[in-house]
Amino acid sequence: MALTVGLRPLTRALLRPWARVPGAALGRPAAGSGDGVRCFGSPRVLVEPDPAAGVAVMKMRNPPVNSLSLEFLTELLISLEKLENDKTFRGIIITSDCPGIFSAGLDLLEMYGRDPAHCAEYWKAVQELWLRVYLSNLVVIGAINGISPAGGCLLSLSCDYRVLANNPKYAIGLNETLLGIIAPFWFKDVLVNTIGHRAAERALQLGFLFPPSDALQVGIVDQVVPEDQVQSTARSVMAQWLAIPDHARQLTKNLVRKPTADRLLQQRDADIQNFVRFISRDSIQKSLHVYLEKLKQKKG
Ligand SMILES: CCCCCCCCC/C=C/C(=O)SCCNC(=O)CCNC(=O)[C@H](O)C(C)(C)COP(=O)(O)OP(=O)(O)OC[C@H]1O[C@@H](n2cnc3c(N)ncnc32)[C@H](O)[C@@H]1OP(=O)(O)O
């Protein structure tokens, strides 16, 4: 899939040969690679390759909460494209480098007080990340080591398999209604595909954030394990998925997922326009303002 996001100077800058991350510049070998294989990535995305296993661990590190800003989305897209184009890799594990937080979802500051052109560019990048992860030829496993609301949940749902750390704080779900906004149809589709229609209609309307035990029960994650076993479990699961011949698995994945992705692909521009119209409404901007204030007050 070609990278189609219209992210002008930012993308061009990021497409320069991969910036070595500070740890790697100091010669820090990738975890699990005794042969000194180096980490690489970009400022917000640390990639730890394990070429022998054909696996790369992609760590999100956009502190404090891994909110999916335009820059962060761009870096994630570039990392994914790079890994997809490198025949060394057959699978990736997506996880977080921010303690206790997988991803706080879409960056509210990209949607609040912004002009329509910015909102359109942002939404295009959100669509693009979803399509790329959801339709990836690689096996994508989510090692969910923190809370994962809204866009963070969408990212998790787009993986082929989800392992969640067993910590009651690590809730996961599409909580958009709690913010006074709505989950777009393609967020909804992915949730319905995962947990079924009835469970999804309740979860979406009530903005449920499922703690691990409930998340497992409803099927929004596939496995819940002690926090210190999330990465090793993701690795074991990956080995199981990689035991299947790539072409058969990829064609099957496409067969199952393409109809859902096509619903967006057939109306991407209209979806962007709907988003911009919706998010620009005074009432929605007001809801976002109230929610952001609540987040601030929680601190003080
Ligand atoms: C028709 C078409 C229809 C289309 C209709 C539109 C569709 C939109 C779909 C939207 C999808 C989404 O993902 S919307 C995003 C949903 N996300 C959320 O609700 C999560 C909100 N955040 C939280 O609950 C918490 O921050 C949480 C993640 C648990 C971490 O709590 P902590 O106590 O550790 O940290 P906090 O102090 O709260 O946060 C640290 C700082 O990060 C900021 N922050 C937190 N989450 C943020 C976020 N998502 N975006 C930006 N900034 C965020 C806080 O304001 C703080 O900023 P400072 O005070 O400056 O330090």
TrEMBL record:
GO cellular component, one term: mitochondrial matrix
Pathway: Lipid metabolism; fatty acid beta-oxidation
Top class in the EC scheme: isomerase
Pfam entry (one): ECH_1
Matching Gene3D superfamilies: 2-enoyl-CoA Hydratase, Chain A, domain 1 (3.90.226.10), 6.10.250.170
GO molecular function, one term: delta(3)-delta(2)-enoyl-CoA isomerase activity
PROSITE patterns linked to this entry: ENOYL_COA_HYDRATASE
GO process terms (BP): fatty acid beta-oxidation
Keywords, alphabetical: Acetylation, Fatty acid metabolism, Isomerase, Lipid metabolism, Mitochondrion, Transit peptide
E.C. numbers: 5.3.3.8
Localization (cell): Mitochondrion matrix
Catalytic activity: (2E)-tetradecenoyl-CoA = (3Z)-tetradecenoyl-CoA; (3Z)-dodecenoyl-CoA = (2E)-dodecenoyl-CoA; a (3E)-enoyl-CoA = a 4-saturated (2E)-enoyl-CoA; (3Z)-decenoyl-CoA = (2E)-decenoyl-CoA
Listed PANTHER family: ENOYL-COA DELTA ISOMERASE 1, MITOCHONDRIAL, ENOYL-COA HYDRATASE-RELATED
Family designation: Belongs to the enoyl-CoA hydratase/isomerase family.
Function of the molecule: Key enzyme of fatty acid beta-oxidation. Able to isomerize both 3-cis (3Z) and 3-trans (3E) double bonds into the 2-trans (2E) form in a range of enoyl-CoA species, with a preference for (3Z)-enoyl-CoAs over (3E)-enoyl-CoAs. The catalytic efficiency of this enzyme is not affected by the fatty acyl chain length.
Subunit field text: Homotrimer.
Protein name from the UniProt record: Enoyl-CoA delta isomerase 1, mitochondrial
Lineage, opening ranks: Eukaryota, Metazoa, Chordata, Craniata, Vertebrata
Gene that this sequence comes from: ECI1
